[in-house]
User: Fold these one by one.
Assistant:
Number 1:
Amino acid sequence: MTVPISHLSPDILVVRFSAIGDILLTTPLLRAIRTRHPGARIAYLTKEQYVPLVSENPNVSEVFGIRDDQSLRDIAGTIRSVRYSHLLDLHGNLRTLGLRAIVRGPWRSFSKRRLERQVLIATKRDLYPADVPMAERYFEAAADLDVEPDGQPPDFFVTPEAEDAAEERLVGLGLGRGRALVAIAPGAAHATKCWPADGWIRLTRRLIGTGADVVILGGPDDVEPAKAIVAGVRGRISGGQERSVASAAGMLTLQESGAVLKRAAALISGDTGVMHMATGIGTPLVALFGPTVRQFGFFPYRADRSSVIELPLDCRPCSAQGGPSCPLGHHRCLRAIAPETVFEALTTVLA
């Protein structure tokens, strides 16, 4: 007897190569699929450096990690071992289009709203049909799976081993022993998304003045800027408070960074992947947005204890993802945000 395909648990492949925030924003869809189809096989294809973002997710059956130097044919060979009933392209770039041409099957994707985005950047006219966050746009690719958003934030699961390693690292830095811990993430992939260093220095001094410790998070590219912030803070405080701020930038794995966020009372960051890690962990959050806006879909998703600081400037948005310099030369969207404003937002979030 042949069982109708509609009665079988689906075999699903989700493709999202990068990056931190984009991957974590796919997790509400993974959760919805698992809830609607408990027996589904859900495989995830991403770059190997991002595997830890989903490897501990109970809604994922298996994760395929690919190297940057792997060819599309190599990647195709990796995923051809299963005849998937649903192939979800949640990246939608030239590389995934090439993969779809090699691996034939029931591919589905979603709209990136490119036209609306470009019109908003060029003319400041908002043609977006609705305020639909990116996490919910991904559901367009799974329309035939009968799923819908559950109104909950992204998921980021960390292991006990990562928590132990993070705690050991914090102890080594002299942070968090009997004092509240606040994490800051000053870096971003593009310079125009970065709040100036002096803002971070002044804010950190204010945080330390409350009796809290401050740890700086980030990747290898953030090591030197983080050192400069630490030096700037320590050069302006005294009375034994110098050890209240330290940088862990470039020292932690993704899992360990998540564990530090789990340990922290709050995170303050720009528009960056660490921000989405905090929403996935459930850490209270203050986010600073400059060149990008809510319509693009990447504001903190469904985070109850969060605040976004942005200025109502006529020049926003100026780009889709930020850039190396302000097109108008003033970078007012972030430079004009005062540390006092950020501190007040944090106080409100934690109240």
Note: The domain at 160-350 is CATH 3.40.50.2000 (Rossmann fold).
Number 2:
Amino acid sequence: MTDLVLFVCAAAALILFVAFVAARLLRSRKAGMSIRMQIFIALASIVGAFALGLGVLVIDRIQARATRIAEESARAEAGSVASIVGNEMEAKNRTLSDVARDLSKAGGDLSIALLSPDGDEVFSRGVLPSAPGTVSVTAPIVASGRAVGSVRVVKPTIVVERMLADFAPTILILSVVLGAAAAAAAALIGRAIAKPIETLTDFAVRVSEGERRAAPPPAQGREVQQLSRALDSMRRELEGRPFVETFAADLSHELKNPVAAIRASAEVLADGALEEPVEAARFVARIQEATGRIEVLLGELLSLARIEARGVGEAGVVDLSEIASAVAKEAGIGGAEVSVVGSSALVKGDEAWLSRLVSNLVDNARTHGKSGEKIVIALEKKGEQAALVVRNQGTVSEHVRKRIFRRFVTTRPDRGGTGLGLAIVKAIAEAHGGNVDCVAFGPPEVSFRVRLPLA
């Protein structure tokens, strides 16, 4: 009963294992085969071939050994019977037919046959040599110095077949254990190889998204270290002219609309709108609005360039809770409801820049969050870092989530958004040795978290 349970469990595990591998192979047809799967297939093929060869070898050797033992037993019995029959015929001057009659009257479980010198059966009892699962041996009968016939003994090998059947569950369990060992080894080896590649890929993606100061991840192994140094060298090379070209292209794109508005308004005024006070005032207001947008945009760009180029000027110990309270008070004057929760968190940095960081996050929540909803600034300490989280009710559009910290990315240009607020937040955080990320995109809540090293 125990063997049956083990056999069923092993068979079920083997079926699930094969189904898992098949599902991964089907998925790899679309996404490509991962390094982990390639290593697994190689190890599984080697281990599977080894397990199959081992099983076949064990079964073959057992079967050959058991068959040989059965043949040796049949040969010994045939020789003994032939010797007895020969002595009986020689001592009592009897024929083979007389001995056959005596054997037919006697009982016994031995499968035996007496054959004439021509090979005809004189007497036969028990299993035939043509029956499956048997071995047969023939020994000559010698009387008075001449061959007078032969004895054939048939031995069944059903014991061998039963023994092999008993070995089948053990061999299946052994195959499943070896397969599980191969899977575990493939997972460990695949992780050791694929993890550094995935980490370097993430580093390359962050650099491509504008995180120019991103440090390459620590690498182990000579080959991975060489690849890491090559990627970091490429990052430094890409910080020059291509970045300037991209920056100029983005700037010209953002300035296109307000400049076009100023040009169109000026043309209308030049064509006679100056003579109509109401129309002239409307177009002058459009010019002033576009000019104000250009001034805001250039001011933001100047701030971003200054923090990225010069970094933090004079750094001192700053309490983030005091900065958050000051920003919340100022936002309250403007009609926003902002609350600060959490304890004091001292960091080393520039108070003006850190105030700008918190102010930009609060302004972003006011611009893009639900109108009238409370904004929460939460402070906490985690290990050697201080975390500042700004939460508001709302949602971030799907199409901007992956590039939300890049320059000129905004979903509300109608509310005066320049798309530079979060880019400045990111630059300030990195200049202070920290980072910023969006931990919740909503709905219902949007959360931005800034992590800075404690002083």
Note: The chain has three domains: 2-160, 226-310, 313-455.
Number 3:
Amino acid sequence: MNLVMIVIIMVVTNEGQISVDFLLGISIFLLTFGFVIQFIPGLFLSTSGGGSLDSVVYRTANILTEDPGWWQNNTQNGTNWEMHTDIISRIGLAADATPKTRQTRTPRMLNMAKIEQMKLNEAVLTTKLGLYYKISGAQVNYSYNITIKPIGNPMTINGSNGSIPFGDPLPSSQDVYKITRLVLVERGNIASFRADELTANLTNNNAAMVNISGNQSDVIIQITDFNITNPNASFDNAKLNNKPLTIPDNYIAYNRTNISDFNNFPIPVTLENNTDTLRLIFNKSLFNESANTLELDFNNITFNPNGSPVNYSDRVEPLYEPATLVVEAWS
């Protein structure tokens, strides 16, 4: 404005009047300038609302990976919303060892129990994640897909193997706004044993015994350092409290070799080298007794016939697997 005033003063005639040509020119300039200011922001926004969807997927991914969530009523509150799904304030998946702090010290480390509870009522999930917009006071929901995809290693949640999707199927002919976050997903607990640490069934040296007490999250047992001398060595099946288990309803079997990562196998699982690693993931719903005896049946692999069965709880430790969390949304 100061510049305009200076120009006006400079073009004042000797009679103290402003040139009509100048007034016309500056008026056209100001009108054009105002139009450009109003029009330019529209160049960067999609007519379908894409600008807002970019921010929606960004915000949703950040909340899910860096926030533990929150619940509250008139007297209590906490971040363990997965145990209070009827009074959720917001949904987050980040692990949290101190459920009264409203925040987590472990962003991008996702809690398995929270992931399992993501299968909420669709309206609750949409509202608590803010996956909607308002038109004349009415709520219009975005379509969305949230998927947790394992990287390399096996991952199961509630007996489901592979990627873990929530929301809608992806459209085939529509603009989709997407963001990806690298995360670590809590897989429950794992107990690792060398084969020579396991003791055999009293009547079968090819069967290894493991004691498991109390209720559990998914039970993961990993066995390494097999003494394989026979080309027909294999893991054949598992029994719990003398009852045969089945794949994939009760558990899933993986094997890793020195030239490949973990791969899912039907039984029997062939074991070819001493460097093979066998990983067995058992559904947590199986362990509802106060004391459980797990029998792992092998072929052409013998175990120590003397001593007591190993205890799962003596070796158990948290297991986190690398994964990606992908948030996609469209309208």
Note: The domain at 189-319 is CATH 2.60.120 (Jelly Rolls).
Number 4:
Amino acid sequence: MKIVIVGAGMIGLCTSMLLADDGHEVVVLERDPAPPPDPAQSWGSWERKGVNQFRLAHFFLSRFRAVADHELPRLTEALTVAGASRYNAVSNIPAEMKGGVRPGDDRFEVITGRRAVVESVTGRVTEETPGVTVRRGGAVKGLVTGAPASSAVPHATGVELEGGERIEADVVIDATGRRSPLPRWIAEAGGAAVAEELDDSGFIYYGRHFRSGDGSLPVMIGPLKQDYGSISALTLPADNGTWSVTIIGSAQDRALRGLTDPKRWEAAVGLLPLAAHWIDGEPIDDGVTVMAKIEDRIRDFAPGGKPVVTGVLAVGDSWSCTNPSLGRGASIGLMHGVALRDLLRDEGAADPRKLTAIWSELTRAAMEPWYRATLNYDRHRLAETHALIEGAEFSSKDPEWVLTKTLEARSLDDPDWLRLGMDLAMLLRRAGEVLDDQAVQARLDLDGWSSEDRPPLGPSRAELVSAIA
């Protein structure tokens, strides 16, 4: 089968390797012209204008590592050689907090790095994969259509580049990510509107990267994501003795705007007890990198079971994307790519309408719950943030939110809750699945959890604002 994948980001590249390994002929088309450089040079020299968070914090969860180890072991091997951090997120926590080593702790192993480094390695491994051709510097103008597989539904038989070249394919896969133009392409081909839910996530990011002099990483004494009232901190190991620190807040919080100044940013991070030591390194970026206007979006290409186009399948962020603070995009995208490989293996492309309908239903059943869980967390966290800015309390009886807050509060002093929290954070279990666990239910108070007079962790709102000002 001849397959065209539009987009050479992480999910487009990984999906191309999965499909080529299955015997397909795959062409990957990327708008950005520059090829992946040597990984050691990628941070400073590689420009990827098509990826708006290319130099912001990135982290690849245990779920990504587990799937990649199984499906693409040559990729994880190459990442290790290039200096990607491969470590166990629980083993690195002090012994008194984790309660010693337990059977099954190996599931928390991650392999991670800065986006530029990981993508440069992935690009090189992809280009060495038999059956894959990567073409960079050619923007796709739209879909090429042929005889429809179903009445009044356009059928894509390939793509047309901006220069007029047409590339035929049995299946077109859209992996262009958050900025995917696929709905426009479908409309221009005469298709019906794609069903879409779209909203600004409401968060803003202020991040920096650091390097140690000896290749070591800061000691992890708390979770990767820590909530401190109206802000959150991400402390993320990367590759070759580098890491990132990011402050996340509401995009409406005017008091945080001073965080664009490195000195004020350092003053704020210095108040965070589990994160302050993470800035004891050499900064490797020019200042504070800011990202806002991050969309939560999900698309349905077969609303009501009726495809709006055939011959095109969306994967990863082209299908759905959320606020990236939980780091789930790469893991969900890789799982989605494996599911697509399996579907094409089982169904082929002989019946395009059936293929599209099955893919939409499979995506809805197997992948959408991950999106909904992430969106549910984001909506609650943003509402909590706004309440705390106003000096008010926030509470919710939503079971998934109660579970999340319980895990946040208890993971620092209860090894069982620590591991359960890591299962959720590393995308190894869904909150709904955990809530069906009777042993967990027995320990949860679904009417809300009391802090039991635990003092607040970190600065007050007034102290934070004062440090930034």
Note: The mean pLDDT is 92.
